[in-house]
Automatic annotation (TrEMBL):
One protein family per Pfam: NAD_binding_10
Highest taxon listed in the record's lineage: Bacteria
Protein name in the entry: Predicted nucleoside-diphosphate-sugar epimerase
Native organism: Lentilactobacillus kosonis
Domain NAD(P)-binding: from-to ranges: 7-188
Gene3D superfamilies: NAD(P)-binding Rossmann-like Domain
InterPro entries per record: NAD(P)-bd_dom, NAD(P)-bd_dom_sf
Amino acid sequence: MKVTIIGATGRVGSSVVRKLANVPDIEVFAGARQVEKVPRGVNITPFKIDLHISPELLNEELPDSDAIIFAAGSGGKDLLQVDLNGAVKVMRGAEHKGIKRFIMLSARNSLNLESFSEPNISPIANYLIAKHYADKWLMNNTDLDFTILQPTTLTEEPATGKITIGQYASNSNTIDDVAETLIAILKNDRTIRKVIAMSNGDTPIEDAVFNL
């Protein structure tokens, strides 16, 4: 399988790349603006991608692959250009390339409009708004075989290997557990066209995803 990771130097994206490094039968194209920071492995091909460029240039940079995991983010600094428009350009690029499988790393409450409005507005409302419209474009304006993963707050704590799927059993996710869940989703076609809530929990990741 050939997999493209967009955001390969971010917190989650780099964890995905490291976990897939040297895995037999998987070829990884790791996309980032700073390719020198991409984790290395015998099956990893770093490539430069800038989500600010035109759709036409982005299409040229996007490798041919079987699936895309979109894990890029601006860290709140460039929400419209990266988290929203950059994501949509990659979706359009996937369709242009004939890449059907598209896994989106999103966020808790990205599809909950109440989170963007008073009186209970989220402190990260603008980020959620960007993710909302990117997710909606993926769901409603493409024919991609999508999965949208909605973890809650990301933490730097050691991986637990256990999660809850479909609800939020806690208010946190370790970064490595989110990365492992994205990989489990990639391996499981039963996740196609599903929006999946997740948090740290009590079920081993492979089991939780398999039992969706």
